[in-house]
Design brief:
about 325 residues, mainly alpha, two-stranded antiparallel ribbon, globular
């Protein structure tokens, strides 16, 4: 699950290497797309969406803290009253996106869930136009129309909805949470660097989940169980803890760091366009690995939504 918005103010004093930047974004999009498939396998075990969100937030916090300590340990300092704003960012933005994303992929094909979530940047455009009174380019509104038309095709309302209605609802909530994440992050990166922002965000998200679901009630026995990899790899089994480690390290920490690093070499707009490969990769993996199927109308709808998202990304 990509997060392009958090690193746009990183210094540009370093010489730009666009090829390296594009390669880093492509690697991040691939890891995010693959993480969706791995997470979906984890959700087939007795570990639910809420617990998976809790584990991912805490693991990401610990890993990103190590990264921050290696590069700038002074970045953790808080300004007066800043902790309240960071708490909102962590609970609403970080925790909310993770939760509704996992709830959505538990009920929907991977690519469909991600495409619905990627409506978030379009919701940002609506918000800043309505409440921020900012001018929004026409292509953004055209992108919104395309995305909505594509969503109708994917859901296939005329057939009484061939997709799980609750899953679509969770996907739309994930889009709203993603929009909140982008808006909150845009304000916070003016005050601190991206890595420390993510560290504080995941910290407050972890605190929230620890209160909501105390760790002493964590079903530790499920972590030691072996889990079938589902679909074409159903004959393969791995321990749940190994899959969770993948979700934390290669599905969260590594792609986030890659995205932040890439923004030193390419603009956020161009990085965002390349990151649109994430739902495409997730869809391919859902078909090849998890053996998920989509109707022709849903494939057309997915393409229309993707076109709308790419069109929106080309407008600053």
């Amino acid at each position: 699950m990509a997060a392009i918005g958090v690193g746009e103010t990183i210094g540009e004093e370093q010489a730009r290497r666009p090829a390296l930047g594009y390669a880093m974004v492509l690697a991040a999009a691939t890891l995010f797309g693959l993480n969706g498939a791995v997470s979906k396998v984890v959700l087939t075990s007795s570990l639910g969406s809420l617990r998976l969100t809790e584990v991912r937030c805490l693991g990401a916090f610990l890993g990103l803290t190590v990264v921050a300590l290696l590069f700038d340990r002074h970045s953790f300092r808080l300004r007066t009253g800043e902790w309240r704003r960071l708490a909102v960012f962590g609970v609403v933005g970080v925790a909310g996106v993770q939760l509704f994303y996992f709830l959505a992929i538990d009920r929907l094909p991977l690519g469909i869930a991600l495409l619905i979530q990627y409506l978030g940047p379009l919701l940002v455009a609506i918000w800043v136009r309505t409440f921020g009174h900012e001018h929004i380019r026409r292509r953004v509104w055209a992108a919104l129309v395309l995305a909505l038309v594509g969503l109708v095709l994917m859901v296939q309302i005329w057939r009484g909805s061939s997709l799980d209605v609750l899953g679509v609802g969770f996907g739309l909530l994930a889009a709203a949470a993603y929009a909140s994440y982008l808006l909150l992050a845009e304000r916070r990166v003016a005050e601190r660097d991206s890595i420390s922002l993510l560290v504080w965000g995941f910290l407050f998200a972890s605190v929230f989940w620890t209160i909501a679901q105390p760790w002493w009630s964590f079903p530790a026995s499920t972590v030691a169980k072996t889990v079938a990899l589902e679909g074409a790899l159903s004959s393969w089994h791995l321990p749940a803890w190994a899959l969770l480690l993948w979700v934390i390290v290669l599905g969260t920490i590594a792609p986030f760091v890659l995205i932040v690093g890439a923004l030193k070499h390419v603009t956020a707009t161009r990085a965002g366009i390349v990151a649109m490969l994430e739902p495409v990769i997730a869809t391919v993996l859902g078909w090849v690995w998890l053996q998920q199927t989509l109707t022709p109308a849903q494939l057309v709808g997915a393409g229309v939504v993707l076109s709308g998202i790419v069109l929106a990304q080309t407008a600053r």
